[in-house]
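User: I'm writing a short report section on ligand binding and want a predicted complex to refer to. Could you take this sequence and zinc ion and write out the structure as tokens? A short remark afterwards would be nice.
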Amino acid sequence: MPFRGTGGLGDTEAMPIEAYAAHQPKSQLEPFRYDPGPLGPREVEVRVTHCGICHSDLAMIDNDWQISAYPLVPGHEVVGTVTAAGPEITHLKVGQRVGVGWQCGSCGECEFCESGQPALCAQQRATIVQHHGGWGSAVRTTGDFAIPIPDAIPSEFAGPLMCGGTTVFTPMMHYAVKPTARAAVVGIGGLGHMALQFLKAWGCDVTAISSTHSKEAEARKLGASDFLATKDEGALAGAANRFDFIISTVSADVDWNAYVNMLRPGGMLCIVGVPASDLRIGAMGLILFERQVAGGRTGSPQDIARMLDFAARHKVRPMIEKFPMADVNRAVAHLRSEKARYRVVLEA
Ligand SMILES: [Zn+2]
Ligand SMILES: [Zn+2]
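Assistant: Sure. The structure tokens for the complex follow:
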């Protein structure tokens, strides 16, 4: 391990970070060494033990969103140990186990930052946008965005919770999904398999929706009491007015009106996957029954901390496949092949 632990709070000595970077869109990852510079007063450095691979990492490698800067070090489902903390950090100790997710900074001054919602800050900084992420020996973050991991959650499972887990859990909190709700999860993959577990533990009756029945047995084990296959003729139409909350994790373009029509009056369709095309939804289906369509994002540090606490108490765990960090290209290829069940985790 090229990176050594440092002395303690306030130690700002910089050591080079050995990472894996993409140097151009859609390229392989290559070893990449960088000097992170002096540690800022509110920053921490985290020695990486595990880092998940999220579909957003692939999108950033490929520059799908036109915001990538190269060399690009992906990795925003980071778990590791604090090895250095700036002098203004009081809530974390060197040696403490933490996770780092999508966000690594915010302005600290706007109304959203001041009201404890830095995930909504317009000046927020992301771990892998103009910043080097967790596929390497260490990562830097503003201390507020390094979240302590409960002891009950092993590090290999904590990574995928830091982005995928909070993406499906935060909307349940922010949109006040009731335990009495009938809920549906669209897409049983990296996000959906965690959404099934969270909604079940929340108390909801959960239906899994997937294209075919191939994942039915697994979905039921993860908490689904019912399963709809969209390729079955009439399956969605037969579920009209059934759900209070539908969370969509798919990146495919689907018939969104079919999903709106499955909502009960006042129900919500929450979009957390990113389809290629804009959503086309008829207004009357919303107007007549006061239905809502909303977006959900990864959440602020306190949302993530609550999610981790909930996951620890209810034993919500992602299903993972592990690869050594040095096999990062094989791990990426596996996720791209759509064969991963369900999250891929790199291990240092
Ligand atoms: Zn992610
Ligand atoms: Zn702000």
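A remark for your report: The CA atoms of residues 323 and 330 lie 8 Å apart. Residues 106-107, 109-110, 112-113, 118, 121, 123 surround zinc ion (ligand 2) (CB under 6 Å).
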